[in-house]
Automatic annotation (TrEMBL):
Organism in which the protein naturally occurs: Roseobacter cerasinus
Limits of the Arginine decarboxylase C-terminal helical domain: 572-625
GO molecular function: arginine decarboxylase activity; metal ion binding
Keyword Lyase recorded: yes
This enzyme's EC code(s): 4.1.1.19
Gene Ontology process terms (BP): L-arginine catabolic process; spermidine biosynthetic process
Cofactor: pyridoxal 5'-phosphate; Mg(2+)
Residues of the active site: 494
Protein name per UniProt: arginine decarboxylase
Modification sites for N6-(pyridoxal phosphate)lysine: 100
């Protein structure tokens, strides 16, 4: 049995992209595991969903697996430690978490707690993010890197935070910003720790390549940099310049690009040092990617390197450059966000319904059927290997002719319905013909079912919608059963864009996911994996579907897991208030309307009571499809 579940899971390429975090049990459940603890029993996802449902938490949910978060952070630091040892790098590593990648309080506080031992810090790109950082118990040695456009309030707070024990670095993004910093630092009589953000000329591949190269919107080019150095010297601030910052963009697919960029960053570092800047920190930004497809390839959703290779390449490049220039090895800083959080979250939704584009039901011919309808039915007689293409062509021809007859008023709705039914039946016969998979099934266009999911793509998976991000997706149950259907997923929004129709499969990227037929009264859950980076706050309120509940779990306890923290999803009242409705006022207006109906004798008082109760409980409830379940006790 174990083999069966593994075989089915293999269809989804799980062994490749799973990174050791997932397995399939002999019961066919997708289950969570910790590669560092091979003796630990895997934690079944369907069992977890069941146990959560007993507690009143049901799909769609965002499941945050705390040990996965801890693991990525630990891996990153271990990889740098190993790289430094292997390469003979004498500097230290100071990681910072870029808050924009996942701002959720639970995530930030966990990272700071687990990162204490490594003096893990934070990177902020805005004033709200600075407010978050200043509320964290950072280790005094942990860095607080301030990027982004800084107004006077930002600069004042960041400068003063140094006095309160924060190890704050203000990264100068423009010449104008330096003037603000200089003025306020002088007023406050504070010697700041300064960084400078540079534009590299090397461009990198990947979706975020616009963040790199000299047309990038951020940082100073060579000419401005030289001007800045002159101004720093003239104003007596050159001694404060301790960090050089570069950022290539996120999810850089090719290690060669990373290496080249690091080498160029070293050139600037050496030059700036020669000009008198006492640099000690080289901040190489983000870009460390996640292999979402498991292809280990240089494409947008993969990376052709491991975290170890990334760290070793940086250490090696910096060591060579610094030794050639006779400089000490700087402290390496990275702002690796995606790598640290992506794997820790799994989005799970349930399938509400399916629209099938084939049928096992064979319509009987009747007296008076149009002769084309009989011709269509007769195709079944020659769906075999020798005449498959001919049978297919005929099917399409007869169906289209019959549809044309309907449009011209020559056959009635009953005949049209039987045409559609015959077509769906033939589609199932074509599918059954073994070698249909290739070009024919694509042309048939009917091989793919529409599964209707209880989620909003726009709210929960915004990058899937906006930038064609691929996440691993698969059913989390029945993996010991061959999935004999193929489907795309539609969300709850009334928007044809709310569709997932690209999938990571064993053989590459496919346009439909192998799925199981739905069973009456039985939940069918789909897991979207590795959604911890960027998805949680980019989402929007299309059709007013709000945040799904977030459940943070550890992988210990009697149920196999323990709920560490629970964030309720948005209630309808909350979502209404986001778009400037006062839910109380809505309720009042509704009450008045129904009371008028009672006064006019159209509604009974008890109907009024029922309606108001439904309105009130809906306001308090969440925004997603609620599958009625009996509430006991
Ligand atoms: C977005 C961003 C990051 C995070 O990049 P990842 O690829 O997610 O690690 C780091 N630094 C800066 C300046 C950023 O804008």
């Amino acid at each position: 049995m174990k083999d069966t579940a593994d075989t089915q899971a293999a269809l989804y390429g799980m062994a490749r992209w799973g990174d050791g975090l997932l397995t399939a049990t002999s019961d066919g459940d997708a289950a969570l595991c910790l590669p560092e603890m091979p003796s630990k029993a895997p934690v079944s996802l369907p069992a977890t969903m069941h146990a959560l449902s007993d507690r009143g938490i049901s799909a769609p949910i965002l499941l945050r697996v705390q040990p996965f978060l801890d693991r990525s952070l630990t891996r990153l630091h271990a990889a740098f430690a190993k790289a430094f040892k292997d390469v003979g790098y004498q500097g230290t590593y100071r990681g910072v978490f870029p808050i924009k990648v996942n701002q959720q309080s639970e995530v930030i506080s966990r990272l700071i707690r687990v990162g204490q031992a490594h003096h893990y810090g934070l990177e902020v790109g805005s004033k709200p993010e600075l407010m978050i950082a200043l509320a964290q118990p950072l280790s005094p040695q942990a860095l607080l890197i301030c990027n982004g456009a800084k107004d006077e309030g930002f600069v004042r707070l960041a400068l003063l935070s140094g006095k309160a024990g924060f190890n704050t670095v203000l990264v100068i993004e423009s010449l104008r910003e330096f003037e603000t910093i200089r003025r306020i630092a002088t007023q406050l009589d504070i010697r700041p720790q300064l960084g400078v953000r540079l534009k590299l000329t090397e461009r990198v591949g990947g979706k975020w390549q616009a963040s790199s190269g000299d047309r990038s919107a951020f940082g100073l080019g060579g000419h401005d940099l030289l001007t800045l150095v002159q101004r720093l010297k003239a104003s007596g601030f050159i001694d404060c310049l301790m960090l050089q910052h570069t950022h290539l963009g996120s999810q850089v697919p090719d290690i060669i690009d990373i290496r080249r960029a690091a080498a160029e960053a070293c050139r600037f570092y050496v030059e700036l040092t020669a000009l008198g800047a006492p640099l000690t920190h080289m901040d190489l930004g983000g870009g460390l990617g996640v292999d979402y497809t498991g292809a280990r390839a240089r494409d947008d959703n993969s990376v052709n390197y491991s975290v170890q290779e990334y760290c070793t390449n940086l250490a090696e490049t910096l060591r060579h450059a610094m030794e050639a220039a006779g400089l000490d090895h700087p402290t390496i800083v990275t702002e690796s966000g995606r790598f640290v959080v992506a794997q820790s979250s799994i989005f799970i939704f349930d399938v509400l319904d399916a629209t099938l584009y084939d049928s096992a039901e064979k319509p009987e011919l009747r007296d008076g059927d149009h002769h084309l309808l009989s011709d269509l039915a007769a195709v079944e007689g020659y769906i075999d290997s020798t005449r498959l293409r001919e049978a297919f062509n005929d099917t399409i021809y007869y169906r289209d002719e019959l549809r044309a007859l309907f449009r011209r008023g020559q056959i009635d709705l009953e005949q049209l319905a039987r045409t559609e039914q015959s077509f769906l039946y033939l589609a199932s016969r074509f599918k059954a013909a073994a070698h249909i998979h290739g070009d024919l099934s694509a042309e048939l266009g009917t091989g793919v079912d529409h599964y209707h999911g209880n989620f909003s793509l726009f709210q929960s998976l915004p990058d899937v919608w906006a930038i064609d991000q691929l996440h691993p997706i698969m059913p989390i149950q029945r993996l010991n059963e061959a999935p004999n259907r193929r489907a795309v997923f539609h969300d709850l929004t009334c928007d044809s864009d709310g569709t997932i129709n690209r999938f990571i499969l064993e053989g590459g990227i496919g346009d439909a996911l192998p799925v199981h037929p739905l069973r009456e009264g039985e939940a069918y859950h789909i897991g979207v994996f590795f959604v911890g980076a960027y998805q949680e706050t980019l989402g929007d309120l299309h059709n007013l579907f709000g945040d799904a509940p977030i459940v943070t779990i550890t992988l210990e306890g009697p149920d196999g897991f323990t709920i560490e923290h629970e964030t309720e999803g948005d209630s309808i009242a909350e979502v209404l208030s986001y778009v400037e409705y006062d839910p109380g006022a809505c309720l009042d207006a509704f009450r008045q309307t129904v009371e008028k109906a009672v006064a006019a004798g159209k509604l009974s008082p008890s109907e009024r009571r029922m309606m108001t109760a439904a309105y009130k409980s809906s306001l308090a409830g969440h925004t997603y499809f609620h599958t009625a379940s009996p509430i006991i006790g």
